[in-house]
């Protein structure tokens, strides 16, 4: 980022002369400082993984979750400020509930993503507010099949086969681009995600991390968004560690 | 006897008064159904269930050793018209609770949505805590009591059957919020006709009933109800809830007297009851 | 000559539309409660039948007595749903009082508080008929008796509910010793004698009142706390 400051970064309601809204860029910076979150859409479902950085050894295992269910059929993964993201999660739950009340059927993933994105966008329009310091990956299954969307602080909402955000965004993206998404199963995707998260994690610079995995599949989870069961997760983690060791040899 | 023009010259059931006949002369004179009984114009927009329209009949349930069996028929009547013949009046809530509902069908559907929202909330929070049967029962009781306090009741009687930590739970709630737990429960005509049968079987088996006994008892009670309750049908569902969860049966057609002319006398009740 | 006149046939325009059983927010679930206070104790009895507002019995095991503190219970007949709401409200307020003041509310204070609570809802009353029974700060047995909107009176004995007309004369005679020309009048009676008498009283109510029966809770409140006992009544 060139001309940092110069008075153009004080409010989201002011563009800089070269057409940027600095506050939104800064919000993206907040996301880039956070643990990596990636997701893969396969033929039968979606898998989300988060590299959850552990700021203190005294934290209870499983606290500060970065993967949340929003409805039976939709879940989100988080990078960036957890507190900001939780507001989005609460809003997403409310939107899902209200859609079901009005239309009598589960909210399509695209509609949910766009509504959450609209909220993010509103927070880039007024001088009195601060943009959300988080990106979220929304994954779910609806009538159209498995869906994967990413919503960013700018309010953009984009569908992907594979998405990544946070610290290891670029490295993860390079790995994701090698995957043939339409030939993959969710079981394979779990291992792949574990491998990528472990490989982008910088053991020297970063704090310890815990891998969080969520998945939804038409066959494996009967269309419900669940956390990946313990046995599958530990299999995936040992697979990831082995792959990493082999690569280092 | 002549008809009172007031009550037939305008549409009922919330249909649009296309010709504005009613509102011209006497604003807000109520329609026979769906009416608010005080005649202030400001109340015109607010409608309450002051009268049930489409109704289900009895729900009956009994505890057996290890669980609960609950039975309902599948008829929903429009007054005395047998309007909907295949409506499920039982609903699973969470993993270990089932509710059976008598009374207004629309209020049951509304309650169903409310309960689904609650279980979805539990699912999303994902902290391992789920509503127990007793909590669901108590929630419905408070919901119904608060609605009746607003003069806007949910016109149902709800039987809640469930299993929490291996123990059976059976409770009932009605439209004014009356609620209690018991070992056997019946609503509507069931309270008059089926309850004595349930009580006798329960008292005759001091060591408790088996599941098969309980299922047969519930089916027999529904058959007796079909014979005498004009708002019941022989298309029924029987659910079993135990520590393994809830199983609601597919629709069952009860074996009854054959009503073809002359044949009713051929088969005795004993034959029907023994399934011969 | 007297002429027998025909009653005019009712005209159509006065006829009202059929009212299909308008919503009735109140139900009387019946039941009898009674209480007798002694010098340092209080005995309360309440049957456990819950009627459906008519001839039907909804359940045989609904207890009408609710423990508020270690020194105080409330016994309620009338509408069960309102009773439950009232009990829940009292419990919440009593817990609140304890946290605010660091002590449990005394029985006389609860008695006044119940009156306020009932009176507050006088335009849509709790359809409940209450007794507050317990021991006061001096350890003396005491009872308050209420109507549905909060009128109350401190008494030595009382009864409420569907069988109260049957019980009251018995209490007048045996506890207050009205009009008996005894030289000494009422005197202190030992606890076990009162418990036995209270059981007789509720049994008698169950004999004649169809809304009273099944079982009875007999509750004794004294310096040791609150003790419960189950007592069988007729199931008919």
UniProtKB/TrEMBL annotation, chain A:
What keywords appear on the UniProt entry? Cytoplasm, Nucleus, Proteasome
Would you say which domain of life the source belongs to?
Answer: Eukaryota
Q: Which InterPro entries match?
A: Ntn_hydrolases_N, Proteasome_alpha, Proteasome_alpha-type, Proteasome_asu_N, Proteasome_sua/b
- SUPFAM superfamilies in the cross-refs: N-terminal nucleophile aminohydrolases (Ntn hydrolases) (SSF56235)
Q: Which GO terms describe its biological process?
A: proteasomal protein catabolic process; ubiquitin-dependent protein catabolic process
Task: Please tell me whether the keyword Nucleus is annotated for this protein.
Answer: yes
Please state the protein's primary subcellular location: cytoplasm
Tell me the PANTHER family matching this sequence: PROTEASOME SUBUNIT ALPHA/BETA
According to UniProt, the name of this protein is Proteasome subunit alpha type
Q: Which organism is it from?
A: Tieghemostelium lacteum (Slime mold)
* Source taxonomy: Eukaryota, Amoebozoa, Evosea, Eumycetozoa, Dictyostelia
Automatic annotation (TrEMBL), chain B:
Q: What is this protein called?
A: Proteasome subunit beta
Report the record's Gene Ontology biological process terms: proteasomal protein catabolic process
Q: What is the lineage of its organism?
A: Eukaryota, Amoebozoa, Evosea, Eumycetozoa, Dictyostelia
Q: What is its main location?
A: cytoplasm
Which CDD domains does the protein's record reference?
A: proteasome_beta_type_4
InterPro entries given for it?
A: Ntn_hydrolases_N, Proteasome_beta4, Proteasome_bsu_CS, Proteasome_sua/b, Proteasome_suB-type
Give the family this protein belongs to, as stated in its UniProt record. Answer: Belongs to the peptidase T1B family.
- Kindly state the subunit structure of this protein: The 26S proteasome consists of a 20S proteasome core and two 19S regulatory subunits. The 20S proteasome core is composed of 28 subunits that are arranged in four stacked rings, resulting in a barrel-shaped structure. The two end rings are each formed by seven alpha subunits, and the two central rings are each formed by seven beta subunits. The catalytic chamber with the active sites is on the inside of the barrel.
Which GO cellular component terms are attached?
Answer: cytoplasm; nucleus; proteasome core complex, beta-subunit complex
According to its UniProt entry, what is the function of this protein?
A: Non-catalytic component of the proteasome.
UniProtKB/TrEMBL annotation, chain C:
Q: Which SUPFAM superfamilies match?
A: N-terminal nucleophile aminohydrolases (Ntn hydrolases)
One Pfam family, short name please? Proteasome
| Compartments (UniProt record) | Cytoplasm; Nucleus
GO BP of this protein: proteasomal protein catabolic process
Q: Which UniProt keywords apply?
A: Cytoplasm, Nucleus, Proteasome
Keyword Transcription regulation attached: no
Q: Give any Gene Ontology cellular component.
A: nucleus
Q: InterPro entries per the record?
A: Ntn_hydrolases_N, Proteasome_bsu_CS, Proteasome_sua/b, Proteasome_suB-type
* Keyword Cytoplasm applies: yes
Could you give the subunit structure recorded for this chain? Component of the proteasome complex.
Record family assignment: Belongs to the peptidase T1B family.
Relate the protein's function as given in its record: Component of the proteasome, a multicatalytic proteinase complex which is characterized by its ability to cleave peptides with Arg, Phe, Tyr, Leu, and Glu adjacent to the leaving group at neutral or slightly basic pH. The proteasome has an ATP-dependent proteolytic activity.
Protein name according to UniProt: Proteasome subunit beta
- Origin organism is Tieghemostelium lacteum
């Amino acid at each position: 980022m060139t001309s940092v400051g110069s008075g153009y970064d004080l409010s989201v309601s002011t563009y800089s002369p070269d057409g940027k809204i600095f506050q939104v860029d800064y919000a993206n910076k907040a996301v880039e400082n956070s643990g990596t979150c990636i997701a893969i859409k396969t033929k039968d479902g979606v898998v989300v993984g988060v590299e959850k950085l552990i700021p203190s050894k005294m934290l209870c295992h499983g606290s500060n979750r970065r993967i949340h269910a929003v409805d039976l059929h939709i879940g989100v993964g988080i990078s960036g400020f957890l507190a900001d993201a939780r507001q989005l999660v609460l809003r997403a739950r409310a939107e899902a509930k209200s859609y079901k009340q009005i239309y009598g059927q589960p909210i399509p993933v695209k509609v949910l993503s766009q509504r959450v994105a609209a909220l993010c966008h509103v927070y880039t329009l007024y001088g009195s507010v601060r943009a959300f310091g988080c990106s979220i990956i929304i994954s779910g299954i609806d009538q159209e099949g498995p869906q994967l969307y990413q919503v960013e602080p700018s309010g953009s909402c984009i569908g992907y086969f594979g998405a990544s955000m946070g610290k290891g965004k670029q490295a993860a993206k390079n790995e994701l681009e090698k995957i043939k998404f339409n030939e993959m199963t969710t079981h394979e995707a779990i291992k792949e995600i574990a491998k990528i998260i472990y490989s982008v994690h910088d053991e020297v610079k970063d704090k310890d991390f815990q891998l969080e995995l969520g998945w939804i599949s038409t066959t494996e989870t009967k269309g419900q968004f669940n956390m990946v069961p313990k046995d599958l997760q530990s299999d995936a983690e040992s697979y990831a560690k082995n792959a990493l060791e082999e690569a280092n040899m | 006897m002549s008809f009172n023009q007031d009550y037939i010259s305008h549409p009922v059931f919330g249909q649009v008064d296309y010709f504005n006949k009613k509102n011209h002369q006497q604003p807000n004179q109520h329609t026979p159904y769906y009416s608010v009984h005080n005649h202030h114009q400001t109340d015109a927009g607010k409608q309450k269930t002051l009268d049930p329209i489409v109704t289900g009949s009895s729900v009956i349930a009994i505890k057996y050793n290890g669980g609960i069996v609950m039975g309902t028929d599948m008829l929903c009547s429009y007054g005395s018209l047998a309007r909907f013949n295949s409506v499920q009046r039982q609903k699973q809530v969470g993993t270990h609770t089932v509710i059976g509902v008598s009374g207004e069908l629309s209020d049951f559907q509304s309650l169903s949505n409310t309960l689904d929202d609650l279980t979805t909330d539990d699912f999303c929070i994902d902290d391992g805590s789920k509503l127990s049967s007793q909590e669901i029962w108590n929630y419905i009781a408070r919901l119904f009591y608060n609605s009746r306090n607003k003069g806007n009741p949910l016109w149902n009687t709800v039987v809640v059957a469930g299993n929490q930590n291996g123990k059976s739970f059976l409770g009932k709630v009605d439209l004014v919020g009356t609620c209690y737990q018991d070992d056997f429960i019946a609503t509507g005509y069931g309270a008059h006709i089926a309850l004595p049968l349930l009580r006798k079987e329960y008292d005759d088996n001091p060591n408790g009933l088996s599941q098969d006994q309980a299922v047969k008892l519930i089916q027999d009670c529904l058959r007796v109800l079909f014979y005498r309750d004009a708002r019941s049908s022989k298309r029924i569902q029987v659910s079993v809830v135990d520590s393994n969860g809830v199983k609601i049966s597919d629709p069952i057609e009860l074996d009854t007297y054959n009503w073809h002319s002359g044949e009713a006398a051929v088969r005795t009740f004993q034959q029907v009851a023994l399934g011969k | 000559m007297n002429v027998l006149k025909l009653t005019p046939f009712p005209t159509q325009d006065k006829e009202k539309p059929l009212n299909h059983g308008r919503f009735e927010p109140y139900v009387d679930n019946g039941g009898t409660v009674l209480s007798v206070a002694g010098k340092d104790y209080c005995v309360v009895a309440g049957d456990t039948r819950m009627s459906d507002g008519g001839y039907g019995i909804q359940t045989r095991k609904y207890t009408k007595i609710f423990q508020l503190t270690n020194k105080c219970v409330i016994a309620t007949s009338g509408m069960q749903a309102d009773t439950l709401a009232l009990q829940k409200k009292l419990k919440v307020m009593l817990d609140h009082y304890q946290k605010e003041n660091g002590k449990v509310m005394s029985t006389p204070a609860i008695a006044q508080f119940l009156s306020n609570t009932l009176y507050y809802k006088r335009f849509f009353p709790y359809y409940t008929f209450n007794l507050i029974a317990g021991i006061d700060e001096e350890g003396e047995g005491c009872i308050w008796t209420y109507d549905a909107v909060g009128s109350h009176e401190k008494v030595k004995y009382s009864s409420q509910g569907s069988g109260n007309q049957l019980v009251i004369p018995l209490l007048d005679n045996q506890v207050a010793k009205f009009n008996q020309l005894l030289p000494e009048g009422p005197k202190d009676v030992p606890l076990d004698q009162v418990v036995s008498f209270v059981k007789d009283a509720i049994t008698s109510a169950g004999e004649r009142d169809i809304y009273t029966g099944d079982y009875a809770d007999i509750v004794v409140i004294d310096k040791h706390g609150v003790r419960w006992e189950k007592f069988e009544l007729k199931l008919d």
